[in-house]
Amino acid sequence: MWFACGGCLLLALVLVLVLALVGRAWLSSDDEDYQRDSSTTEQEAPTEEPSEEASEETPTEDPVSPAPDGAHEMTELRSPTGNITCLLDEETVSCSLVDRDFGDAGLEDCEEDGPFSLQVADSEASTACGSSFLSDSAQTLEYDESAVYGDMACTSRFDGMTCWNTMTGKGFMANKVTYETF
């Protein structure tokens, strides 16, 4: 009898484990979706010792967090909802949100009558209250698509827009209810 109960318990545990793995696979996004790797920062990036020949030339640095393959070259973009507009130039990316409610998240907000703006260059990302990066001519960057221009990149997702400096890995993510800098 104890042997049968132990077998039933083992079968139940295996069934729970299989259901958990299937549920996790079903709820997670496809492996092909791009996820920015924020595990490597500029300080952690491997450095190469320049050779005597290379010291005469300016070496080209490899991006810490490169834009995904297939990223569109764009200087102005908007989210599919039209709530987020971003401007990319060679060394800066700046975004503005028209509608937002950061009250539940307890985050700093700009004045209610203007857009909320964030930007990043080569240092830490920061808010840019008082600045507007809205554009009527910006093209829509569809969900799961990315844009790149110079050292800057953005990826549009259903849960918000993520933009970063590809050389430093510094950037931000923003949506209607929250934002974060990294």
Overview in brief:
The protein has 182 residues and is of the alpha+beta class.
Q: How is the biggest beta sheet arranged?
A: 6 strands, mixed
Number of helix segments? 1
Radius of gyration: 22 Å
* Low-confidence parts: 28-34, 38-45
- By helix and strand content, what is the structural category? alpha+beta
Question: How would you characterize the overall build of this protein?
Answer:
With 182 residues, the chain is of the alpha+beta class. It has a domain at 62-181. It has 1 helix and 12 strands; from the N terminus they run H-E-E-E-E-E-E-E-E-E-E-E-E. The chain has one helix spanning 2-27, and strands at 72-73, 76-78, 84-88, 93-97, 116-120, 126-127, 139-140, 145-149, 152-157, 160-165, 171-174, 179-181. The protein has a 6-stranded mixed sheet, with no helix packed on it. It has a 6-stranded mixed sheet with strand order 6-5-4-3-2-7, with no helix packed on it. It is globular. The model is unreliable at 28-34 and 38-45 (pLDDT under 50).
Break the fold down into its secondary structure elements and pairings.
Blueprint: H1 2-27, E1 72-73, E2 76-78, E3 84-88, E4 93-97, E5 116-120, E6 126-127, E7 139-140, E8 145-149, E9 152-157, E10 160-165, E11 171-174, E12 179-181
Parallel strand pairs: 1-8, 2-7
Antiparallel strand pairs: 2-3, 3-4, 4-5, 5-6, 8-9, 9-10, 10-11, 11-12
Features:
1 helix, alpha+beta, 12 strands, globular, six-stranded mixed sheet, 182 residues, 14% helix
